[in-house]
């Protein structure tokens, strides 16, 4: 399947949106500190009858553009990211979409749900959590900001890779580890700095959960050490009527680590709960 790519101007900035397939829209929101290319496995084989839209969040970008500078982004919030996504849907003439997010992408999906619930047809929440950062979490974010300042993207990749992919990928899938590293290094430290500050100021989305009325799929890699299985189980328990899929031999990025298993649960959810 060929992947289409377009540049859209949102909030005065060029944003890259990858697209594949034809039909009903699914908006896919990437994790930290990756970009839209996280979704390449799904873009290569979209579920029949569905159109995948995978934008970069503000300042993020793909390997081909990983040259030159990113203009200062200032203080960005998850609400800014969600506003960009609503503007993208407006630009594309999309009234409602299934919204899928991995980790930070899930934080943005919650913000989108708060801002524009009528634009969300269904939710796919992969390896994410609704809670805001606590004191310990914010302290780790400050360490990450210092690391970005000191060591740039090489240092970020070194610190994050061992947690981003599961132990099976670490030991048996060197190509997955190399791809995640490539996707991290493609980004500019300014985009990553802004994302850290967006995540550390995000609000608690727990109060939203009981009122989520759209079909919801919660996915988690069984080997995820960042948002482990009990977090996903709690999320599933809190969202009425949601479905839970625990994917074996995957860590924090199951759509990239075990794409066939991820695609199978996604396709089944879409057919049984959304279409
Ligand atoms: C992510 O994968 O998006 C991050 O691990 C989320 C976070 O740091 O809270």
Sequence of secondary-structure elements: EEEHEHEHEHHHHHEHEHH
CA gyration radius, whole angstroms: 17 Å
| Biggest sheet record | 8 strands, mixed
CATH topology: Rossmann fold
Kindly, what is the distance between the CA atoms of the first and last residues, rounded to a whole number of angstroms?
Answer: 22 Å
Side by side, the strands of the main sheet go: 1-2-4-3-5-6-7-8
Architecture per CATH nomenclature, i.e. the level-2 architecture: 3-Layer(aba) Sandwich
Share of β-strand residues: 15-25%
Which small-molecule species are bound to the chains here? Answer: D-malate
Number of helices: 11
Mean of all residue-level pLDDT scores: 96
* Secondary-structure content class: alpha/beta
Poorly predicted ranges (pLDDT <50, ≥5 residues)?
none
- The CATH homologous superfamily corresponds to Alpha/Beta hydrolase fold, catalytic domain
* Count of spatially separate domains: 1
Total E-strand runs: 8
In percent, how helical is the residue content?
40-55%
Overall form = globular
Which CATH class is shown? Alpha Beta
Description:
The protein has 275 residues and is an alpha/beta fold. It has a single domain, classed as 3-Layer(aba) Sandwich (Rossmann fold), CATH 3.40.50. 46% of the residues lie in helices and 19% in strands. It has eleven helices and eight strands. The chain has helices at 40-44, 78-92, 104-115, 135-164, 167-172, 174-185, 189-200, 206-209, 229-238, 254-257, 259-274; strands at residues 4-10, 13-20, 24-29, 50-55, 97-102, 120-126, 216-221, 243-247. An eight-stranded mixed sheet has the order 1-2-4-3-5-6-7-8, sandwiched between helices. α9 links the parallel β7 and β8. α2 (78-92) crosses α3 (104-115) and α4 (135-164) packs across α7. It is globular. It starts with a strand and ends with a helix. The mean pLDDT is 96. Residues 31-32, 103-104, 199, 226, 252 line the site of D-malate.
